[in-house]
Structure formats: C-alpha cells, structure tokens
C-alpha cells in the first residue's frame, strides 16, 4: 500500500498508466469500439479524403476508409509488436546477462563483447538493415527489432548481477553447495527485477516508435493492415491539404509512446533508492 500511495502521488506516472490502460482497452476491444470496423480493408472511393465531421470524426483516407476506425484497430498491432519484441528480447538478454555477470572466463567475455558490438550500432539503422534483408512484413520487423533490442537487457542484467555476485548471501549459498542455476534463478533474478521491469516498460514505448518508423519506411506492416506508421507514410502525398490523414495516426503514436515513457520514468523513480532520497 505504501508503494501504491507513492506511485499515486507521481502525477506523470499516473497519467502514463491511464494512457496505457486506454491503449490496452482499444487493442482488446477495438473491433467493437471502432465505428466502422469493416474499414480495416474495404475501400470507399466516393468518400475519399473527407475532412473531420460528425460521421467521420478523424476524416477519411485516400481510399475512403474511416481514419478513426483504423487508428483504433491499429492499436492492437502496435501493442502486439511491442509486447512480442520486448518479451523475446528479455528471453534472450536476461539469461545472457545473468550468465555473463555471474560466471567469469571466455564465455562471459564473449557474451559482453558481442553485446558491445550491437550497442555500438544505432538500433534503428541495424533494424532497418535486418528488416530489408528479411523482407517487408510485420513478422520481419518484429524479428529485426528483437535482434537489436536484447543487448539492452543483457547490459543491465550483467551490471546488476555483478553487483550482487560478491554479496554475503551469495557466498552463504555457495558455501552450502547451492548450484549456479538455483542461485541465478531463485536468488539473483528476483533481486534485479526492478530495473528489468523499468527497462521493459520504457522499451515498449520505444518499440512502438521504431516499429512505426519501419512501417513508415515500408519495412513493417503492409497494406491494407491498419498500421499507424504505414498510415503516416501513405498520407505524405496528400499534405498539407488532407492534414487529418497524417495528424491522427501521428498523434496515436505520440500518445502511446508518451504513456509508456511516463510510466517507465515513474517506476524508475519508485524503485531507485538514490532517486527517492533526492526528493
């Protein structure tokens, strides 16, 4: 309850949590919330590029599809990509970080040098190169993002594991004959979950943004999928006259990323003792 009260006093974090809850609701119930769910793929050329109105609050796109419906339906794809990418990146990066932080020798050095190579390259550039090799699709974008995001978890987990490796309770566990897997999974991992959760929360927002960039560049979702980045890319030809075409999908990306960043910052402030003492 004390942690909850501290969290509720952090207004930006609460706003971020509300935004994320709203995005999750749209992702889960989008087909029932969207006013024209059939507009995910159907074309209506007679009503193309209609400005916002009572019938179409966000206007229509170049094929006459309701932009509000496509923004709502696009939430599911954006959230799916973020969850899959961050989940797979954690599945790869966390075990490698635990192993490299606890063990010493050639294997640990090899893991961290490979991690450093990935971190030395800009993630977006590397993801673009991998997506180009794999071909344009949502699956290719998710795989490219996963292969470029796991080093962030490895670096964090490695540092936290090294910090705990020489703790007295680890020495005691080694003294009674506890095996390495038991020490890592039952004793070290639970003590370093906080920075992992914070990194994952911020990573969800960052992944939505990078996935939108890949969609914008034609390396992610393909038509007629309702995708926020793809919608912004398709709107370029019609700017500035059809301003609503780009504005509302772009705002959806902005709000979703902002929500995850606000929540991630709030969680970081909550779990980091140094930040708590400075307040």
TrEMBL record:
How far does the signal peptide extend, from start to end residue? none
- Every copy of the ABC transmembrane type-1 domain together lies at 75-264
Coiled-coil zones: none
| Topology in the lipid bilayer | Multi-pass membrane protein
Q: Where in the cell is it found?
A: Cell membrane
A GO biological-process term: protein transport
Keywords, A to Z, come to: Cell membrane, Membrane, Peptide transport, Protein transport, Transmembrane, Transmembrane helix, Transport
Q: Identify the CDD domains for this entry.
A: TM_PBP2
- Give me the segments passing through the membrane: 12-34, 81-102, 196-222, 242-264
Tell me the Pfam families matching this sequence: BPD_transp_1, OppC_N
Q: What is its main location?
A: membrane
InterPro entries recorded: BP-dependent_transpt_permease (IPR050366), MetI-like (IPR000515), MetI-like_sf (IPR035906), OppC_N (IPR025966)
Q: Does the keyword Cell cycle apply?
A: no
Gene Ontology cellular component annotations, sorted alphabetically: plasma membrane
- Say yes or no: keyword Protein transport present: yes
Q: Which family does it belong to?
A: Belongs to the binding-protein-dependent transport system permease family.
Q: Which PANTHER family match?
A: D,D-DIPEPTIDE TRANSPORT SYSTEM PERMEASE PROTEIN DDPC-RELATED (PTHR43386:SF1), OLIGOPEPTIDE TRANSPORT SYSTEM PERMEASE PROTEIN APPC (PTHR43386)
What's the protein called, per UniProt? Peptide/nickel transport system permease protein
Q: Where does this protein come from, organism-wise? A: Belnapia rosea
């Amino acid at each position: 309850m004390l942690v909850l009260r501290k969290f509720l006093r952090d207004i930006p974090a609460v706003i971020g949590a509300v935004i994320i809850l709203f995005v999750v609701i749209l992702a889960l119930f989008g087909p029932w919330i969207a006013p024209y769910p059939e507009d995910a793929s159907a074309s209506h050329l007679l009503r193309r590029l209609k400005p916002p109105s009572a019938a179409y609050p966000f206007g229509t796109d170049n094929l006459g599809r309701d932009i509000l419906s496509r923004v709502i339906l696009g939430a599911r794809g954006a959230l799916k990509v973020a969850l899959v990418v961050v989940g797979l990146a954690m599945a790869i990066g966390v075990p490698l970080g635990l192993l490299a932080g606890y063990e010493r020798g050639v294997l640990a050095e090899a893991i961290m040098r490979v991690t450093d190579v990935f971190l030395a390259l800009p993630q977006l550039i590397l993801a673009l190169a991998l997506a180009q090799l794999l071909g344009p699709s949502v699956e290719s974008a998710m795989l490219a993002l996963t292969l470029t995001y796991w080093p962030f978890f490895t670096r964090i987990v490695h540092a936290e594991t090294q910090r705990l490796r020489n703790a007295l309770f680890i020495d005691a566990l080694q003294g009674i004959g506890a095996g390495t897997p038991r020490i890592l999974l039952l004793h070290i991992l639970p003590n370093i979950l906080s920075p992992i959760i914070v990194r994952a929360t911020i990573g969800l927002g960052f992944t939505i943004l990078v996935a939108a960039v890949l969609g914008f560049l034609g390396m992610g979702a393909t038509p007629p999928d309702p995708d926020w980045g793809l919608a912004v890319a398709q709107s370029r030809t019609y700017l500035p006259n059809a301003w609503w075409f780009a504005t509302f999908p772009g705002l959806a990306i902005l709000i979703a990323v902002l929500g995850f960043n606000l929540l991630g910052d709030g969680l970081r402030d909550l779990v980091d003792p140094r930040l708590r003492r400075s307040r």
